[in-house]
Amino acid sequence: MTDTAAEPLITSNDDDGEYERQVRYSEEVDDGDVDESALVSPGVFIWTLTLCAGISGLLFGYDTGVISSTLISINSDLSSRPLTTLDKSLITSATSFFALLASPLTGLLADAVGRKPAILAADLLFVLGAVWQAYATSVWAMIAGRSVVGAAVGSASFVVPLYISELSPSPFRGRLVTVSSLFITGGQVVAYLVGWAFSERGGGWRWMVGLGAVPAIAQFGMLFFMPETPRFLIQKGKVAEGKKVLTRVYGDGAGMDKLVTAVLRRVEKEILEEEDVAAPSTVKHEGSWKAKMTHIISNFHQLASVGPNRRALTIACMLQAFQQLCGFNSLMYFSATIFRLVGFHSPTLTSLSIAVTNFAFTLVAFWCIDRIGRRRILLLSVPVMVAGLALCAVAFSFIDLSGEEGASHLLVRAEGAEAEGSKVWPAIILLSMVIYVSSYAVGLGCVPWQQSELFPLSVRALGSALATSTNWFSNTIVGLTFLPMMEFLTPTGTFVVYAGVCVACWVTVWRIYPETAGLSLEDVGGLLREGFGVKESVGQFRGRRSER
Ligand SMILES: O[C@H]1[C@H](O)[C@@H](O)[C@H](O)[C@@H](O)[C@H]1O
Fold it and tell me: What is the domain count for the chain?
């Protein structure tokens, strides 16, 4: 390792973000020998931070999962009348729509004031939204409450993986980011259970939605003990503080001080290299509003015009779009409806099996995401999703859904009637959905949330935020189109369409998604410098695996 005890590359001269930079890195830094692969486990400090931050994931899962039970137990409690289909659609889609709007705004906030304040802001919104919904007396008040929760979910869903990924040592980054997916899917299971527990009580839905405030308050309290990410601190010139956090992340075992200094250098080097590319006016005088606006515009410009950034954005948005367009959340929102339609007597319990399968297989992802690699997991799991969907499509074609009203009244039928006939095909539908959900949970359910690692520091928050918006945009589309598709394309046609999306996903992943497992955040950028770096990354990954 070269001269790790030398002066810092970026020196701070005051606390308010104005700082000088010393461009002297080229000869002194050789980061090729930063070897994090010798680290054995993440350590208590990083585990504590990951678990604290993960609470936002729990809220994300809870608030998106609880809506199906809430809708069926509201009865006439809002606006003194039963909910119409339009009310239900608006209440459901308000969340994803506001999540879509909130992500880029929080991206700017996370860039300007930090990742930690962005989590804090999301907590305040979670509490406000929960209380608002719990006291709502009209449909519009409920829609407003769901919108506030949506803004919270949108912010949290992008900032938490970003926070964890910027804190994690590279060998564990995939796993630690997947912890937030575990919290999401765990939150969905809790939401189903709470929904089931309160569904028979008068006004029980107020408890369902109001309970969401509790974890948010707890996380808000814990946040004060959580640090900002070292990468953000160093970028803002707070090098000593950043180094302190890195030291706590890596621990003070033998050789760790060298490793910490080397990681610090690598981050500094990346910042300086990026600033060489950016317009000089955006680097100096960060205090004024005009400069802030120029900085934001320059970030958008950098994201769209600099080759590696554009490629990172393409991969991240494409993965997030496929995560939703493959139709998974139509099961989350409507599985009870589907199971009742095909004749299950306890549809809520059956749909709980979907949520539990999703959670259980996210645990499998947690185990294998760094070992097997992100790309390989997707290439292996997406074909299984296709098989599950194809089986589901075939099984539906053997079930007679024509009835008196015909397939055009699926929702109404689902509430009143059941399909007649053999129990075999409904069981096959359940089996096919379990196959589909388990393969989704292992791959597409969590790999796209690794998005932050694709972007260099200067555009990481903004890039991740735009990819998260793509997720919520696609989520809204699936939410709005699922029932009409079931009606006009038939259930068989609908699941065939989702299978087609999965095939497109597989081809795209195969062509453009490089293997990023085990690479440092700063090295991923190097892969995307000339192209998508797929071949090179796969070769490097094999090399790293055989060394271990
Ligand atoms: O990663 C999560 C997870 O897979 C959830 O189960 C799903 O509901 C979300 O939409 C997704 O973003």
Answer: 1
Check if 444 has its Cβ closer than 6 Å to any atom of ligand 1. no
User: Does residue 180's CB lie within 6 angstroms of at least one atom of ligand 1?
Assistant: no
Q: Which two structure tokens, joined as six digits, stand for 225? A: 């003990």
Q: What residue type is assigned to position 374 of the chain?
A: R
Tens digits of per-residue pLDDT, 316-339?
Answer: 999 999 999 999 998 887 777 788
Token duo for residue 10: 């970026």
Closest ligand 1 atom, residue 329 Cα? 8
- 407, part of any domain: yes
445 C-alpha to center of ligand 1: Å?
6
pLDDT surpasses 70 at 252: yes
* CATH at 135: 1.20.1250.20
Question: Taking the model in full, what pTM does it have?
Answer: 0.86
For residue 281, the model assigns a pLDDT of 45
Residue 278 lies in a domain: no
| Atom 3 of ligand 1, nearest CA residue | 445
Give the helix/strand (H/E) hosting 122: helix 115-134
Would you say the CB of residue 446 lies under 6 angstroms from ligand 1? yes
Ligand 1 proximity of 330 Cβ (cutoff 6 Å): no
Could you give the CA distance from residue 53 to residue 58 in angstroms, rounded to a whole number?
10
Are the C-beta atoms of 245 and 228 separated by less than 8 Å? Answer: yes
Cβ of 188 closer than 6 Å to ligand 1, yes or no, is yes
518 belongs to a structural domain: yes
State which ligand 1 atom lies nearest to the alpha carbon of 362: 4
Residue nearest to atom 1 of ligand 1 (CA): 445
Residue 103 lies in a domain: yes
Quick: pLDDT tens for 81-127. 988 878 888 898 899 999 999 998 998 899 889 999 999 999 999 99
Q: For residue 358, which atom of ligand 1 is closest to its CA?
A: 6
Going by C-alpha positions, the residue among 475, 339, 496 that lies closest to residue 410 is 339
ipTM: 0.98
Q: Which residue has the higher pLDDT, 381 or 2?
A: 381
How far apart CA 135 and CA 132 sit, in angstroms, is 5
Domain with 188, as residue range(s), is: 44-226+304-547
